[in-house]
Write a structure and sequence with these properties.
Number of helices: 8
Strand order of the largest sheet: 3-5-4-6
Shape: globular
Structural class: alpha/beta
Largest sheet: 4 strands, mixed
Strand content: 5-15%
Length: 206
């Protein structure tokens, strides 16, 4: 899981406060991690980040490797190389860190379905982006994360996963992404931040 510095990440979240934006970015990440930890399909989590707060929060729970903030592609490659160096065998998933609706059950369903394919991806709710890429091994990981990544992944030959997991398609780029999915339940950390932020979030999202 690659994640940018909390000081610069999630720049499209118009919260009116850099501190609040950073708190939300951290909360999204921690809720995603918590769901992965509870998944029966996940054995190890590698986080790629140079942010010291990220490191302190998950160093006892995940393997953390640093990057130079040179972009998403480079960060993913660093994570895959870490798995390769440590002799990881079996499937691999690249999961983006902004899935505050994620649940262990949704990850179970996704990764179980992904085992049927050498390379696959899960599109986001817009149909343009990608929230997760899977591969049968470290040597078969292909990723085209970034703008219009769903199309790029399909053109690269990855299978589109049709698993009904709205919790994992619902990434958050802007505040309105938190508002229009009333059927989904936010994770504990994101709920805490939103509760403390209160009126300021409501004002920014209207």
């Amino acid at each position: 899981m690659p994640i940018r510095s909390l000081q610069t990440g999630k720049s499209r979240l118009s919260t009116g406060s850099d501190a609040l934006r950073s708190q939300l970015a951290l909360a999204f990440f921690l809720d995603t991690i918590a769901a992965l930890e509870r998944s029966r399909e996940v054995k190890r989590i590698v986080v790629v980040s140079s942010d010291t707060t990220i490191y302190r929060c998950v160093q006892a729970r995940c393997d953390v490797v640093t990057d130079n903030e040179t972009g998403l592609t480079a960060a993913v490659d660093i994570g895959v190389e870490e798995l390769r160096k440590t002799g990881h065998l079996g499937p691999v998933a690249v999961v983006l860190p902004d899935l505050p609706f994620a649940t262990a059950e949704a990850f179970d369903a996704l990764f179980h379905a992904a085992r049927e394919h050498k390379q696959a991806f899960l599109g986001d709710q817009t149909g343009d982006g990608t929230t997760c890429v899977t591969a049968a091994s470290v040597d078969t990981v292909v990723h085209r994360l970034g703008p219009n990544s769903a199309r790029a992944h399909a053109e690269a030959g990855l299978t589109t996963l049709g698993v009904p997991v709205p919790e994992l398609r619902s990434d958050v780029d802007v505040l309105n992404d938190l508002d229009h999915r009333q059927q989904l339940r936010l994770g504990v950390e994101t709920t805490k931040v939103l509760s403390l932020a209160g009126a300021s979030i409501a004002n920014q999202s209207t």
